[in-house]
Design goal:
Nucleotidyltransferase, domain 5, two-stranded antiparallel sheet, 7 strands
Length: 232
C-alpha cells in the first residue's frame, strides 16, 4: 500500500534566491494511486509586495494575502500532512527550491521526501512533445476549463489526473466500468465516463472482502469510493 502527495505552490516570482516567496500551497493525497479526498491547502502572507507579473498568473493580491498566516505558522501543518510520502510535482526543482528556502528561513531542515517530477515523466513518455500542464491535459482529454488562473490546490488536483495517465494508473486503478469523480474542496466538480473492463474483476473471499471494507472505512468521507453505493 502506497501513499503519495501531489503538490503545487504559487509564488511571488521565479526565484527564492532573489527574495520571492510562497503565497499558496496545495496538496492532494493519493493512496495506491487513487485520490482519497484528503487535501491540504494554505494561503500564505509573503510579507512583501506582489509583482504584477505574478498577480496575472495566480490572481492573489497583496491585499488578499495581508491577513493570511505567514509560512512559519503553516509549516508544521504542512509537514504533518506530507509526512515522508513521495511528492508528485510538475517541474519539481521550482517548488522544492521554494519550499526548502522557506524551511531554511524558519529553522527547518530541507525536505528529504522522494520526489517524482511529472515534467521528466512526460518527457520520457512523449519525447519532443510539449509537457506543460495544459498541454498534457489536452493530450489526455482532461478537463482543465476551471484553470482560468493558476491555483495550487486546483493544479494539484489536475496534476493528479495527469500523473495517473503518465503512469498508466487510470487504466490500472480507475477502469471501473462506472463514472469516476474528481473532487475539489470536497465538492463534486467533474464527471467523466470510462470504458468498462473487458475482463471481469476476480472474485474475492470473505477475509479479503473484510480487509477491503476496513481500508475503505479508513479513507476520508470525501474519498471517491464513498460516492458510490455498495462500493465494497
Amino acid at each position: 500500500m502506497s501513499r503519495e502527495i501531489v503538490l503545487d505552490t504559487e509564488t511571488t516570482g521565479l526565484s527564492a534566491k532573489t527574495g520571492d516567496k510562497i503565497v499558496e500551497i496545495g496538496c492532494v493525497e493519493l493512496f495506491n494511486h487513487i485520490p482519497t479526498g484528503k487535501n491540504y491547502h494554505a494561503y500564505i502572507n509573503p510579507e512583501r509586495d506582489m509583482p504584477e507579473g505574478a498577480f496575472r498568473v495566480h490572481g492573489l493580491s497583496e491585499e488578499f494575502l495581508s491577513d493570511k498566516p505567514i509560512f512559519a505558522k503553516v509549516k508544521d501543518g504542512f509537514l504533518q500532512f506530507i509526512e515522508d510520502s513521495p511528492l508528485i510535482i510538475h517541474n519539481a526543482p521550482f517548488d522544492m527550491g521554494f519550499l526548502n528556502a522557506e524551511l531554511s528561513q524558519n529553522n527547518g531542515q530541507p525536505l528529504q521526501n522522494k520526489v517524482i517530477d511529472t515534467v521528466q515523466l512526460a518527457r520520457q513518455k512523449h519525447p519532443g512533445a510539449r509537457v506543460g500542464l495544459d498541454a498534457l491535459c489536452k493530450h489526455y482529454g482532461i478537463d482543465n476549463s476551471r484553470r482560468t488562473l493558476h491555483g495550487a490546490l486546483l493544479d494539484s488536483e489536475i496534476l493528479a489526473e495527469v500523473y495517473l495517465e503518465l503512469i498508466g494508473g487510470r487504466q490500472v486503478g480507475l477502469a471501473l466500468g462506472i463514472e469516476t469523480i474528481s473532487l475539489s474542496n470536497n465538492n463534486i466538480i467533474q464527471q467523466q465516463s470510462y470504458k468498462t473492463r473487458k475482463n471481469p474483476a476476480p472474485e474475492i473471499d470473505v477475509e479479503q472482502g473484510n480487509l477491503h471494507r476496513k481500508l475503505l472505512n479508513s479513507f476520508d468521507k470525501a474519498a471517491i469510493w464513498n460516492k458510490y453505493p455498495n462500493s465494497d
